[in-house]
Design brief:
Distance between the termini: 15 Å
Number of helices: 0
Largest sheet: 7 strands, antiparallel
Radius of gyration: 20 Å
Number of strands: 35
Structural class: mainly beta
Helix content: under 10%
Shape: globular
Length: 402
């Protein structure tokens, strides 16, 4: 999914190009003091600033901001990894402990939520293990912030839900029947706790983005689904063995008519438990109803062929024997060419990119995930594949000047 920010969104994008030092204590992942040799790339509107010496991002304009964090983490044993987003030193988002083990790292984790900030507030992101094991955040660790100028809705578990679903029975996340503590942040979007549904008041183009942190009563595949108006739009799968909790993030653009519902759902081989930090967001990409000048979003309908060793372009139709996709919105201002897998923007500007990659049936080993502008790599990160754990998901989120 790609859309242009034009001139009405405040924005910030940061990603590291070096690995941090190892630490068993909670530490700020964007503080240069936690690196032997810190290096990063950032882009920002004038009203957001970053101080690498303190690891702080400061907001100079009040508002509601979408925050997306992605980090590959390496540990020196087996442990849980917790992430926190802090405003002025106080945690406003805390994930559950996510599984990590040195024989299959780096594990890549994604977290997202909406933040309500005042001018002068500062943001920090930290991680910590749940025992004496050390953790390293690897290159490609990223933070993206995007200010809302429209409608929005966010639901977040701040305490674990109860086990729900069984066998083929899927369930709606945030449904009060499943317990847990749900925090909501809403504007022109209503939340029905009895059903777990969000309902926009106005017709808008929304980024639908869901991050599921989940444990299972039975090992097997977990399917994470996005729904609109009672119908399944698309889903992604992950595999739970003894390596849990698992994190799965999925999102794309979707035009919703006022009064239509939206929800995030899950289904597993047995019961599933949504964990603290699970979050579902509807984020209106418009400026009070006026869509940006360029946007595009689609999902692939089938698995690719086996990819050869070397560099493979993800959305190149030549990697599929039978290639097909579903457009989530009508593309505007961006031309996608399936033969070669390229995206060309019609006008220069700042572009928000969300790429979600599912890899499966692969040999065990580490891959490198890259975004290129022409022949120039502008983002890269490691992703470890393990044959006993696939399919595995990698979220890439960044803002680029194109």
């Amino acid at each position: 999914m790609v859309h242009s920010l034009t001139n009405y969104h405040s924005y910030f994008s940061l990603h590291t190009t070096a690995d941090s030092n190892a630490s068993a204590s909670e530490y700020n992942i964007f503080d240069e003091d936690n690196y032997s040799s810190y290096a990063s790339t950032s882009i920002a509107s004038p009203d957001i600033s970053y101080d690498s010496a303190a690891g702080r991002v400061t907001f100079h304009s009040a508002g509601i901001y979408l925050a997306v964090i992605d980090t590959p983490v390496t540990v020196n044993g087996q442990c849980g990894v917790t992430a926190k987003i802090k405003i002025n030193g106080t945690a406003v988002y805390t994930s559950n402990n996510l599984f990590a083990i040195s024989s299959a790292d780096p594990f890549t984790y994604s977290f997202q939520t909406l933040l309500d900030v005042s001018a002068g507030d500062y943001l920090e992101v930290t991680i910590v293990t749940n025992n004496a094991k050390t953790a390293i955040v690897e290159n490609g660790t990223s933070l993206v912030l995007l200010k809302s100028n429209g409608d929005y809705g966010n639901l977040q578990y701040t305490a674990d839900a109860n086990a729900a679903g069984s066998g083929p029975a899927e369930f709606a996340l945030y449904d009060s029947d499943n317990g847990g503590t749900v925090q909501s942040t809403l504007n022109n979007v209503s939340f029905a706790a009895a059903t777990g549904l969000l309902t926009p008041t106005n017709t808008r183009t929304f980024l639908m983005l869901s991050s599921l942190i989940v444990e299972a009563g039975t090992n097997g595949e977990v399917v994470h689904k996005l729904y609109a108006n009672g119908s399944s739009l698309d889903d992604m799968a992950g595999l739970i063995t003894s390596y849990e909790p698992l994190e799965l993030t999925y999102g794309f653009l979707k035009s919703l008519t006022g009064g239509q519902t939206a929800s995030a759902r899950a289904i597993g081989a047995g019961t599933l438990t949504a964990q603290k930090g699970t979050s579902f967001t509807l984020f209106d990409i418009s400026n009070k109803g006026t869509d940006p000048g360029a946007f595009l979003s689609f999902t692939c309908n089938a698995d690719s062929d086996d990819l050869a060793d070397g560099d493979d372009i993800c959305f190149d139709s030549n990697k599929w024997t039978s290639y097909a996709k579903t457009d989530r919105v009508t593309a505007t201002g961006i031309t996608y060419t399936a033969d070669g897998g390229t995206f060309v923007v019609e006008n220069p500007g700042k572009y928000f990119i969300l790429w979600q990659l599912m890899l499966g049936t692969a040999d065990t080993g580490t891959r490198t995930i890259s975004v290129k502008n022409g022949a120039t790599t502008i983002y890269s990160a490691p992703m470890h594949m393990h044959s006993n754990l696939d399919p595995m998901e990698k979220t890439t989120c960044l803002i680029v000047d194109a």
